[in-house]
Design goal:
The complex is a heterodimer of chains A (287) and B (255).
Chain A (H helix, E strand, L loop, with lengths): L29 H32 L3 H4 L2 H14 L1 H33 L1 H16 L6 H8 L3 H25 L3 H9 L4 H38 L5 H10 L3 H29 L9
Helix pairs in contact in A: 3-11, 4-7, 4-9, 4-10, 5-7, 6-7, 7-9, 8-9, 9-10, 9-11, 10-11
Chain B lengths: L2 E14 L2 E14 L3 E6 L5 H9 L6 E6 L2 E2 L7 E4 L11 H11 L4 H14 L15 H14 L4 E5 L7 H18 L2 E6 L2 H7 L2 E5 L5 E6 L15 H19 L1
Parallel strand pairs in B: 3-8, 3-9, 6-7, 7-8
Antiparallel strand pairs in B: 1-2, 1-4, 4-5, 9-10
Classes of the chains: A mainly alpha (287), B alpha/beta (255).
């Protein structure tokens, strides 16, 4: 493609939009489009490799392998667990807990946040209680949840859900409460009802807050589930960590932590995908 | 001529703690159908308060507004209001923003799109229907807001310093366009500004407001149309009126 394709528009000075910017098609090379990203990724890989090297060198210096183990031992342990199915079994348990806890926490948090924050009086009444509950370290609730729900998978799901709920609730509520007055007035001027205001303004405007909630709460779902497993369980990655530690298998601890890290990164990737799709309409002025 | 808006003894106070801020006191005005009335005043004289009351967004402390003979209680799509700031929905494209009033009025999809596309091209935004507000310049956002307001099909239009934040060239351009659109549709326009030239250039009639919305001057603008921003401003009648309005504003400041 040689010449740029301008969008049909007259270019005379009398044309109303003549002073505005014009959209034109421009082909870019692969490197022009992706060069920056590619550089960033190469540097990331280099940083990770450097970390492994430093770790390995450190393991040669530190005499006791129980302290920091070494990357090769961790790799061997990982391979062994992958081959005998240990990793798949325990990871699947943790994934279920995280996923269910996250979904339950997000749904309840988003709905509660949207409804409560939409009604001023109710929000004012609830807010201090919500803040108080939010501030409780969720680990402190684990013993209570064991009494209520036993030591099975339910307890971990609830613990994850509770951790997620408050973050999503507070962020959604903040999103609802920060909706620009002008936008609501604009819909009222169009003759919009309260329903129109709620669904055409407040809901989309609070999406930014909800997305923040979705993003920041992902690690907390994982924390909730794994803490539940550490406190009492016989399955899951938290259990695997506990079990390896009790057998003085430091490589096993690192291997399980590595799997947890990969899991967390995958979950973050999912959220990045969601926010990328809605990123185009950020409010005017915070480009 | 028939009366479209009657403002009767309007007072607006904002109560905060034990102090009431009076923005408008005993303000009365009558607007005839199809006229272009400019309201001129310094900032803080209650212009925006007046428009908010006329639009129905806020309720008067006392007094009332009659629209086509009926006291109006809340915002209505029969009165369009172009506010000072942009209130386009940032998550909607220009097209879907302009469609919004039609959507709320319950018009069907194909009809909406047709009307909205027509309005978008009338305000000169062809090719930007699928852009989001943040991808547009300030002037283009104003055009989009104008298109959205025209989509209500309102007979009465309120404008609050709509071109205040734009550069001089763009303002002149949009003033010209507004006059062109108005000459085609013949709506009633109440246009608030603090710019004497703008008030004279656009209006059939100019109302000069002093503190608390006292009417300092209510003057017919007998300058023939079409008016041209470059030529009309050097017309002798224009200059005469300009001085008259400037004096009235000074007079008001001394009170």
């Amino acid at each position: 493609m040689t010449a740029a394709h301008t969008i049909p528009m007259t270019n005379t000075t009398s044309s109303p939009a003549a002073s505005g910017p014009v959209k034109e098609a421009r082909k870019r090379t692969w490197w022009g489009k992706n060069g920056h990203q590619a550089t960033v990724w190469m540097l990331r890989v280099a940083l990770f490799l450097a970390f492994l090297v430093v770790w390995y060198v450190a393991s040669l210096i530190v005499p006791n392998p129980m302290f920091i183990s070494d990357p090769i031992a961790v790799w061997d342990q990982l391979v062994e667990w992958i081959v005998d199915g240990t990793i798949v079994f325990h990871t699947w348990i943790t994934v279920q807990e995280v996923a269910l806890g996250y979904v339950i926490g997000v749904l309840t948090g988003a709905v509660a946040g949207f409804i409560l924050a939409s009604i001023h009086l109710i929000y004012s009444v609830f807010e201090p209680f919500m803040m108080a509950l939010y501030s409780i370290p969720k680990v402190a609730l684990a013993p209570l949840f064991i009494v209520w729900f036993g030591i099975g998978i339910d307890m971990k799901i609830i613990l994850a859900a509770v951790s997620v709920f408050f973050l999503v609730f507070l962020n959604t509520a903040a999103g609802v409460r920060e909706v620009e007055r002008g936008l609501i007035d604009a819909v009222r001027l169009m003759g919009g009802t309260k329903r129109d205001v709620a669904f055409k303004v407040v809901l989309p405007a609070s999406m930014a807050g909800l997305l923040t909630g979705l993003k920041v709460s992902i690690p907390y779902a994982l924390i909730g589930a794994v803490i539940g497993e550490l406190v009492a369980s016989n399955r899951g990655l938290g259990y695997l960590i506990n079990d390896s530690a009790s057998q003085f298998n430091t490589a096993g601890v690192f291997a399980a932590v590595a799997v947890l890290t990969v899991l967390a990164m995958l979950l973050n990737g999912v959220v990045a995908l969601i926010s990328a799709r809605t990123g185009r309409w950020k409010p005017i002025g915070d480009a | 001529m028939t009366t479209v808006l009657e403002i009767e003894h309007l007072t607006k106070e904002f109560q905060r703690d034990d102090v009431a801020t009076v923005a408008l006191r005993d303000f009365s005005l009558t607007i005839e159908r199809g006229t272009f009335v400019t309201v001129l005043g310094r900032s803080g004289c209650g212009k925006s308060t007046m428009l908010n009351l006329l639009s129905g967004l806020s309720k008067p402390t006392s007094g009332r507004v009659l629209h086509n003979g009926d006291a109006h209680t809340g915002p209505t799509p029969e009165i369009g209001y172009l506010t000072q700031s942009d209130t386009l929905m940032p998550w909607r494209t220009v097209l879907r923003n302009v469609e919004m009033p039609l959507e709320i009025a319950g018009r069907d999809k194909t009809d909406r799109t047709r009307v909205a596309r027509d309005l978008i091209s009338r305000v000169g935004l062809d090719g930007f229907a699928d852009s989001y507000p943040r991808e547009l310049s300030g002037g283009m956002r104003r055009r989009a807001s104008l298109a959205r307001m025209l989509a209500y099909g309102a007979e009465t239009i309120l404008m609050d310093e709509p071109f205040g934040a734009l550069d001089a060239q763009l303002r002149t351009e949009l003033q010209g366009e507004l006059l062109r659109l108005w000459s085609q549709t013949g709506q009633t326009i109440i246009f608030v500004t603090h710019d004497i030239d703008e008030a004279l250039l656009l209006g059939d009639r100019v109302v000069v407001l002093g503190p608390l919305g006292t009417v300092l001057l209510d003057q017919e603008i007998d300058i023939p149309r079409p008016r041209d921003p470059d030529r009309t401003t050097v017309d002798s009648r224009f200059i005469e009126l300009h001085l008259e309005l400037a004096n009235a504003l000074k007079e008001g400041a001394r009170q």
